[in-house]
Amino acid sequence: MCSRKNIQMFRGEVSRGDRESLNAHRAAVFWFTGLSGSGKSTIAHGVEKRLFDRSMRAYVFDGDNVRHGLCGDLSFSPAARTENIRRIAEVCRLFIENGTVCMCAFISPLEKYRQMAREIVGEADFYEVFVSCSLEVCEERDEKGYYKLAREGKIKNYTGISAPYEIPENPDLIVETDKESLEESVARVEEFILAKVTS
Questions:
Q1: Helix 40-53, helix 182-197: angle, nearest 10
Q2: Would you give per-residue pLDDT tens digits along the chain (199 residues)?
Q3: Strand partners, 6
Q4: Annotated active-site positions, please?
Q5: Which CATH superfamily is domain 24-197 in?
């Protein structure tokens, strides 16, 4: 097996700066964390459409979607959750080199997961968005019934019920989806992203 230390990075003729200049905005990762049902994916996709309409390069990495492909071989054990986040963060790093605004919608329940993603991406390019919502409201929104199954013990290690969620201590942005409308949340996140990548 070939060791990573025997592989050298190849640098092409087009740099990240070249791509950002072409796009007229810088690249960055906006990491949405929160309970299942808090609105992470809904907000991220809403913002993605708004940025697209501004002719910006933006892409959403959705927790459910990546588990159908890139992370389809992973379970929900602690080790597998760590690997899930590691893979996404590494892919985001590639997308940043491509000049893309990345929005990642993952529960990422533990601070150590989010810190690992920050370290892989790089401090200067990583912004944490805490999508805050009470557990009660998240359960009310649960159309698939996962919370109910978790409370019945039919789903093990379910975040918020039988597995912990560590609230971010110093997120870059907080949106409270149980206190504001979807439109308000999307607008606030869009404004935040534009301030970071176009100023």
A1: 60
A2: 455 566 666 677 889 999 999 999 999 999 999 999 999 999 999 999 999 999 999 999 986 665 565 656 566 677 778 888 888 899 999 999 999 999 999 999 999 999 999 999 999 999 999 999 999 999 999 988 989 999 999 988 889 998 899 999 999 999 999 999 999 999 999 999 999 999 7
A3: none
A4: 108
A5: P-loop containing nucleotide triphosphate hydrolases (3.40.50.300)
